[in-house]
Design goal:
The complex is a heterodimer. By secondary structure, chain A is an all-beta fold. Helices cover 0% and strands 50% of the residues of chain A. The mean pLDDT of chain A is 95. The mean pLDDT of chain B is 92. The chains are: A mainly beta, B mainly beta.
Chain lengths: 113, 113
């Protein structure tokens, strides 16, 4: 089944404790991205990647890192999480660009205390 | 710069009512236009799309027409059902140097039986 998977689905952590949210797709897509969803703000792009070893900042990249060492994986790293990073995070992938249909993962709900 | 404005919610309708959710955008070029839907507890999924002027996207009884003159992509459905209750996102994709997609803030739709 074609899908985007994220892990973990739920995470409660404390300020400053490094964490990684994994994202994997099995559709051989080139374009992958991370979003955060907050009430009243909608969906905002954090980082995106157009291919292996190519990543770019989205609209809200501060406090986040990403890497794209393999085509299928695009982990999101929070080196020193803070409470303002409490949010619902989505990974998405598409065939080759933002103009293609985006396929979303199920989401990761992160709480930083 | 590029931007999108989407009708604010929540929108509450009775079953079988007519639905319109407005979406307008500003762009220097001609974006591809998407509507995504998010059902409770799930990630976003594509509802419909249009890639050029006067194209009409349709799916599950929903329709939207790419209006270049008014830079709009309003979502409509003639007779809504309780199962249509969800959050709807308008998302133009601007193929410029940054290859980014911008999501509207989302419109929450409640359908009453």
């Amino acid at each position: 089944e074609a899908q985007v998977t994220q892990n973990p689905r739920y995470l409660i952590t404390v300020t400053g404790k490094k964490l990684t949210v994994t994202c994997s797709q099995n559709m051989n897509h080139e374009y992958m991205s991370w979003y955060r969803q907050d009430p009243g703000l909608g969906l905002r792009q954090i980082y995106y990647s157009m291919n292996v070893e190519v990543t770019d900042k989205g609209d809200v990249p501060e406090g986040y890192k990403v890497s794209r060492k393999e085509k299928r994986n695009f982990p999101l790293i929070l080196e020193s999480p803070s409470p303002n990073q409490t949010s619902l995070y989505f990974c998405a992938s598409s065939f080759s660009s933002s103009r293609d249909t985006q396929y979303f993962g199920p989401g990761t709900r992160l709480t930083v205390l | 710069g590029n931007s999108v404005t989407q009708m604010e919610g929540p929108v509450t309708l009775s079953e079988e009512a007519f639905l319109t959710i407005n979406c307008t955008y500003t762009a220097t070029g001609y974006p591809s236009l998407f509507w995504y839907v998010q059902y409770p507890g799930e990630g976003l999924q594509l509802l419909l799309k249009a890639t050029k002027a006067d194209d009409k996207g349709s799916n599950k009884g929903f329709e939207a027409t790419y209006r270049k003159e008014t830079t709009s992509f309003h979502l409509e459905k003639g007779s809504v059902q309780v199962s249509d209750s969800a959050v709807y996102f308008c998302a133009p994709s601007f193929m410029n140097r940054d290859d980014k997609i911008i999501f509207g803030k989302g419109t929450r739709l409640h359908i009453l039986p």
